[in-house]
User: Fold this.
Amino acid sequence: MFAEIARHSSFSDAAAALNMTKGAISYQIKTLEAVLGMALFRRTTRGVTLTDEGLRLLAACQTRYQEIEADIQEMKGRVSRSLTVGVSTYFAARWLSPRLMTFMQRHPDVQLRIQPMIQFSEQEMQHVDLAIRWGNGDWREGVVTPIMSLPPYPVGNSSMAQKVEALGMGVAISQLTLLRDRDDSNAWSDWLTAASLPQQTRQDVLIVPDPNVRVQAVIDGQGIALMDDLVSADLGAQLLFRLSDIELPDYGYFLVQLNGTVATDAVAAFSEWLRAQS
Assistant:
C-alpha cells in the first residue's frame, strides 16, 4: 500500500488501484506513521509527496521486493526467460527489426516481445522489462544506459529547404512550424541554444508524439523536425532535406530499466547484445 501511494503520488489513485476506499488508505497510512513515529508523506493540494524518511523507506522496500522476487524465481528452480522490450515503432522498424534475428538465434530460449510505445509514460513503462528511448538520457524513473549516439538535426521537405536557403536559418525558423515529440520536450530549445539562435516564442508548435507520423508530417510540409540518421533513406530519396549542420551530440538512444524491476538473465542478455550491436 505504501509503495502504491508513493508510485501514484495520490491517495485517491492508489485507492482505485488497490480497490480500496480513500478513507481506508488514509487510515492505514496514519496508523503506519504512528507506529513508526515519523511522517512518510507531505499532503499538498495536488496530492502527496514523500518526506525524506518516506524516500528512505521506499528505497528499502524496493530492495526487499527485488530480493523476494529473486528468491521466488530461485525456489521455482528457474529464472524467467521472457522479456518485454518497449520501443517506438520508428526505432523498431528502422534499426531494431533487421537485427533481431541475431538475438533470437543466440538466445533461442528467451521469449521476446516487442511492445510499441509512444509517450514512454509511467503507465506504459510498468508493463515492460526494458525500454529503448530517444532523448538526452535525463530521466529519473530508472537505470539509464546509453546505447547509441545519433545526434538529431533539423530536417524539412524541399519547400522548407528552399526557404531556409533563401532566408537563412535564423530568419526562416521564426516563420516555420516546429514539430515536437511532446509538449515538455526541450530538444528544440537545446538545438536553438547550440545554434546560437533566439528561443522561439511563437505558438504554432505542433506536437506529434509518434516519430513515424512526425517524419511523414515533415514530408507533407506541415513543419520541420529534429530527426537523426535513421531517416537517411528519406534524405537519399530527397523526401527530406537536412537544414543545418548543427547537431545535438548528447542526444541518442538509451536503454532504460524501470526502478524496482528485477534484472533477470534475459534482461542482461538483451542489454549485452544491444550494446554489441550499436
Notes: The first strand starts at residue 41 and ends at 44.
